[in-house]
UniProtKB/TrEMBL annotation:
InterPro entries: cNMP-bd_dom, cNMP-bd_dom_sf, RmlC-like_jellyroll. It comes from Bacteroides uniformis (strain ATCC 8492 / DSM 6597 / CCUG 4942 / CIP 103695 / JCM 5828 / KCTC 5204 / NCTC 13054 / VPI 0061). This is Cyclic nucleotide-binding domain protein. The lineage of its organism: Bacteria, Pseudomonadati, Bacteroidota, Bacteroidia, Bacteroidales. Residues 35-121 form the Cyclic nucleotide-binding domain. Coiled coil: none annotated.
Amino acid sequence: MTKENNMEVARRFTRRLHELPSEELELIAGLFVRREVHKGELLISEKDIARDIVFVEKGLLRQFYFKEGRDITENFACDGDGAMCIVSLFTGRRNCLQLESLEEGVIWSISYAGLVELSERYLHIARLLRHLLEGSLMLSQYKADSWRFETSRERYARFVRDYPEIARRASVNHIASYLLMTPESLSRVRAGVL
């Protein structure tokens, strides 16, 4: 990968969060590492310690865990999205979540420790990191509120509205577990919503 490609990737993934001056954008670009991923590939297992934030250039990822023998989808990330195992990143302990590629694709990883180090010296990178973490926190809160206050039908309608591309590309089983439904319940909801 050329330096120009890394700059374009850094610009694409950071501009939604916080516009960086050229010097700081160049520093961030130097941290990005490109990787091609395959369908079914496990990028992070529950025994790993997460060290990177992942951005999806092309493809579909899902974070998941096992509970009582069931595979539960925690989150999805597709083209242009980021994914991180935040508790493991913050604590340095083994992960509870796994990260799997659901499609052939391309991801870019950036070292969380490297990002934190730069954020201690550069104001705009500190703001970028803050916006990234705030976004992750808000997403978790929206999801928790959805589980608490919305019906199954409302959760599905919100999911389709907010994530149409994921709704189109992810399997019914993965979407159902993300929405805390059985595939059969989701089928009934879809019949009523569509």
